[in-house]
Design goal:
The protein has 2 domains: 56 residues, no CATH class; 207 residues, Fumarylacetoacetase-like, C-terminal domain (Fumarylacetoacetate hydrolase, domain 2, Alpha-Beta Complex), CATH 3.90.850.10. It is mainly β. It is built from 5 helices and 19 strands.
Length: 284
């Protein structure tokens, strides 16, 4: 099942993409795609509905992020050897965990706004993992049973804020609009192996990243189990799992960073496509 939310920002309605690829409005039977709706029993109930009986929605309708009410947006750093090497950072012996502010979350086609003073904003296509079961000290062998589904994430990063301003990475990772999610959430029953998902990203039509989750240092199961030892994972929490090589910071012979008017397009054959423009207009 492909879970979506549609409509104007702040007024999205829950829906699905049916088997024919049609966008369907489920607001008549579902309040919204919150964490409470991502538990296995609810997903199975909604999957059994005859989706083609519900109102079709124009394909031109805005898609918001596919879930709402996210309480934790957790990220993993340096989870691909080739990316760690291009960043000139040591290969981690344990997963590197940091948090992105939930206020960074945005829809899959919404404009990305660079923060004030940004000179080194960068891209990172990633596999997002959405939790469906409250998880504490989960065994790795059982970890995937705690996953509701998978989605695309762009872990946008302001490298100066992240690496040159002292302290933790969080200040360069949590800027407004720096966490586009979607276009949909693919439920875990439709993803046979999360270690077999292609990921790619283009900037202004040039392919910058072209990777696969097969090359992760730590698997999705390992990351869910490991993270659950440090914090309780709750339904609706998002865990974004690292990026393959090809980020702007690692470009040769010189780094390349995002600027006003750039276009980003990223995707996966299993998870859909995001596409949006970059704006230098500051917020607030």
């Amino acid at each position: 099942m492909k879970i979506v939310r549609m409509g104007e920002a702040g007024h999205e309605r829950p829906g699905v993409i049916d088997s024919s690829g049609t966008l369907r409005d489920l607001s008549g039977v579902l309040d919204d795609w919150t964490g409470a709706r991502l538990v296995r029993s609810e997903l199975e109930r909604i999957a059994r509905l005859a989706h083609d009986r519900y109102p079709a929605v124009s394909s031109g309708t805005r898609l918001g992020m596919p879930i709402t009410g996210v309480r934790k947006f957790i990220a993993i750093g340096l989870n691909y050897k080739d990316h760690a090497e291009e960043a000139k950072l040591p290969i981690p012996s344990e997963p590197v965990i940091f948090c992105k502010a939930t206020s960074s979350l945005s829809g899959p086609h919404d404009e990305v706004v660079l923060p004030r003073g940004s000179q080194k904003s960068d891209w990172e296509v990633e596999l997002g993992v959405v939790i469906g079961t409250t998880s504490r000290y989960v065994e790795e062998s059982q970890a995937l049973q705690h996953v509701a589904g998978y989605c695309l994430v762009n872990d946008l990063s302001e490298r100066e804020f992240q690496l040159e301003r002292g302290g933790t990475w969080d200040k360069g990772k949590g800027c407004d609009t720096f966490g586009p999610i979607g276009p949909w959430l693919v439920t875990s029953d439709e993803i046979e192996d999360p270690q077999d998902i292609d990921l790619w990203l283009e900037v202004n039509g040039t392919r910058r990243q072209d990777g696969t989750t097969r090359n992760m240092i730590f698997s999705v199961a390992k990351l869910v189990a490991y993270t659950s030892c440090f914090m309780t994972l709750e339904p609706g929490d998002i865990l974004t799992t690292g990026t393959p090589k090809g980020v702007g910071m690692g470009s040769k012979p010189n780094p390349v960073f995002l600027k006003d008017g750039d276009r980003i397009r990223l995707g996966s054959s299993k998870l859909g496509i995001q596409e949006y423009s970059i704006s230098a207009g500051s917020r607030g």
